[in-house]
Design brief:
Layout lengths: L3 H12 L1 H25 L16 H35 L1 H9 L4 H31 L12 H27 L3 H9 L1
Helix pairs in contact: 1-2, 1-5, 2-3, 2-5, 2-6, 3-5, 3-6, 4-7, 5-6
């Protein structure tokens, strides 16, 4: 009763559940970082009482710059991991996807199936990342800690899933364009 791309994605996940778990963990780590970054940026900044914009609390300014740099590097790492995981899944599933295409699956359905294999574990990973991000910040919090609105956190998780979809589309499309006859004949020789 499920659409063909979801069935293909579930088949790929069932064949390699460890890879799906790693994809979910990578997305979770990214959402934890983004959640912590959002919590840090909604905190009130304290100054030393000087009106000069250059003489604000320099410790806070440098801490925020460092946190943004670390968060950006983690997001870039997650993007590279997503691209690599999609490409590896596509290479390992060449034969399976070629058989699916001979049975009537279109290249678009194969592309969507390869993307679904990355997106299905990304959704729970993103949702788990929100409370874990809040738990990550909790030991460093105090009674005056301000938390961002819930829609910001869910919006960040949704944006992470959308970015995963966008990142998986290109390698999946390239893999789905390979000739079925060429793939199947290469596997038999």
């Amino acid at each position: 009763m499920l659409p063909v791309p979801v069935l293909l994605g579930l088949r790929l996940i069932a064949r390699r559940p460890g890879r799906a778990f790693l994809q979910a963990c990578g997305i979770t780590a990214t959402v934890i970082t983004i959640t912590a970054l959002l919590i840090i940026f909604v905190q009130r900044q304290f100054s030393y009482g000087i009106d000069s914009p250059r003489l604000k609390n320099l410790k806070d300014a440098h801490s925020r710059e460092m946190i943004v740099a670390v968060a950006a590097s983690l997001v870039i790492l997650a993007a590279v991991n997503t691209l690599t995981a999609t490409w590896t899944t596509a290479l390992e599933a060449r034969h399976t996807m070629a058989v699916a295409r001979t049975l009537g699956a279109t290249p678009g359905q194969v592309t969507a199936g390869l993307s679904a294999a990355q997106l299905l574990p990304a959704v729970p990973g993103a949702l788990v990342g929100i409370p874990l991000g809040m738990a990550f910040v909790w030991p460093f919090s105090n009674a005056r800690t301000v938390y961002p609105p819930a829609w910001w956190l869910f919006g960040a998780a949704f944006a992470t899933v959308l970015a995963t979809a966008a990142l998986t589309a290109l390698p999946a499309r390239i893999a789905a364009r390979r000739s079925v006859a060429q793939t199947l004949s290469a596997e038999t020789t």
